[in-house]
């Protein structure tokens, strides 16, 4: 919905102008051609967070397979990329050696690759190609633990912002130290364009509430409270509570796993409960259980102690088949909500987010290698950021979620929906049934345009409210134009 030149056309044109400007610099032209190629590739989503925040587990849950982490990686700076491929394979990259194919084997905890010959700190990236439907739309990046150094910088986050189009930022509870990492990413003009490219994930949701069965409900309540926090909402497009461990268990639980859980569920509660007080009691308890020690350990590894208690309770309360238990574990884990948020904020806006990444890359190059003509191109970057309606929608979404616009609750919800906060399709934006007729869509869009134009022209409203209303009006105009062209 860009006024005048479409966003993809504007970015494509900017890249070719930059290629012409840097035609005598092989390094710069290689970098710009790389950015051109990225526009045609799947969206890159980095999974970022501090140590033991559950990055690899969540990545596996999203993919629905146990692939990450790559075992044998010795070095805290290695990024592991997961891309779609016909067959499983892995390639190692460093700054001092040509790419090297690695021997691949599936291990009990992920993927095992042969890294013999690589010295610690020498490896920069491992690209894993794995055949799965999820990776046809997304490239997932498993990153090293992040944090803020003594100079107040976040080196891992700096690279993430250069390489990724969107970010899942994992945190146990959204503490100040975790938020500071995100705040360091808002310094450049492009970095300030919007926070919608970030979803904060409360990734240890199963640990909330002291391990009680309702802990996941408590975690979702915490996520909603954090989303209302102005500091948090300024840094992200959404906050989602999700237990990667429970979600992954739901996606890969086997019939033998279910049979073992069903056997435990049939035990009298007074007899079983003492063994569920700790992991050690469950695996090594003196009172016999209807499972071998190895099977108990495998269940505990798959579900964790909280997940084990939850699964047994679910089986007892009617989820009496593998399929039923699987679906309920996934639902309760928060994985479905996370995938919906990723679809709405990331996949539906993939072209906009990739354009944003390209603008950031061009801006960085122009500032790092200034010369004749670079100021003009920097002005073009700013012009695209300010003028492209897609970016104006993202900025308004961030402002609405942080409460900076000042609309009342009802208007805020409507504005968010009309600018694509609930999905970018016409039906989602207009809040009508997905199979609504073109006439119905046109009627609702025209009515919304009229109402929001009235607000945009109301001198009694604050400037921020009138400008926000103008963005909504332009979104409505774009929908009407799309319907006029035969869109649905």
Automatic annotation (TrEMBL):
Domain Dynamin N-terminal: 45-173
UniProt-listed Pfam families: Dynamin_N (PF00350)
SUPFAM superfamilies in UniProt: P-loop containing nucleoside triphosphate hydrolases (SSF52540)
Protein name as annotated: Dynamin family protein
């Amino acid at each position: 919905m860009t006024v005048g030149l479409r966003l993809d056309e504007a970015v494509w044109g900017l890249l070719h102008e930059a290629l012409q400007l840097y035609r005598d610099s092989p390094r710069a032209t290689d970098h710009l051609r790389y950015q051109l190629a990225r526009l045609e590739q799947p969206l890159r989503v980095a999974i970022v967070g501090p140590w033991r925040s559950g990055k690899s587990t969540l990545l596996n849950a999203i993919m629905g397979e146990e692939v990450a982490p790559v075992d044998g990686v010795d070095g805290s700076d290695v990024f592991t990329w997961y891309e779609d491929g016909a067959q499983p394979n892995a390639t190692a990259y460093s700054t001092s050696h040509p790419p090297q194919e690695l021997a691949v084997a599936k291990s009990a905890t992920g993927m095992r690759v042969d890294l013999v010959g690589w010295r610690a700190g020498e490896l920069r990236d491992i690209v894993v190609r794995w055949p799965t439907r999820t990776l046809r739309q997304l490239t997932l990046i498993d990153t090293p633990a992040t944090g803020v150094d003594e100079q107040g910088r976040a080196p891992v986050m700096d690279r993430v912002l250069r390489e990724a189009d969107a970010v899942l930022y994992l945190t146990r509870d959204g503490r100040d130290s975790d938020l500071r990492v995100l705040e360091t990413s808002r310094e450049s003009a492009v970095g300030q364009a919007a926070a919608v490219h970030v979803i904060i994930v409360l990734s240890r949701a199963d640990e909330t509430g002291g391990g009680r069965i309702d802990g996941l409900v408590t975690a979702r309540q915490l996520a909603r409270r954090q989303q209302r926090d102005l500091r948090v909402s300024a840094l992200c497009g959404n906050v989602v509570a999700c237990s990667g461990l429970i979600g992954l268990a739901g996606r890969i639980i086997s019939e033998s796993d279910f049979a073992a859980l069903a056997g435990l569920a049939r035990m009298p509660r007074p007899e079983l409960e003492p063994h569920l007080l700790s992991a050690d009691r469950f695996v090594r308890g003196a009172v016999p259980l209807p499972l071998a020690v190895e099977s108990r350990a495998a269940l505990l590894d798959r579900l964790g102690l909280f997940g084990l208690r939850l699964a047994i309770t679910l089986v007892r309360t009617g989820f009496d088949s593998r399929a039923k238990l699987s679906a309920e574990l996934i639902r309760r884990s928060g994985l479905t909500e996370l995938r919906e948020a990723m679809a709405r904020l990331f996949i539906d806006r993939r072209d906009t987010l990739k354009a944003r990444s390209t603008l950031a890359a061009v801006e960085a190059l122009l500032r790092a290698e200034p010369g004749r003509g670079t100021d003009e191109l920097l002005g073009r970057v700013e012009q695209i950021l300010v003028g492209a309606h897609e970016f104006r929608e993202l900025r308004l979404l961030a402002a609405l979620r942080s409460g900076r616009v000042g609309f009342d609750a009802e208007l805020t919800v409507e504005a968010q929906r009309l600018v694509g906060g609930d999905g970018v399709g016409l039906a989602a934006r207009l809040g009508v049934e997905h199979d609504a007729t073109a006439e119905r869509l046109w009627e609702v869009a025209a009515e919304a345009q009229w109402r929001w134009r009235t607000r945009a022209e109301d001198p009694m409203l604050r400037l921020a409210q009138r400008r926000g209303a103008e963005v909504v009006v332009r979104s409505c105009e774009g929908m009407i134009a799309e319907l006029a062209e035969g869109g649905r």
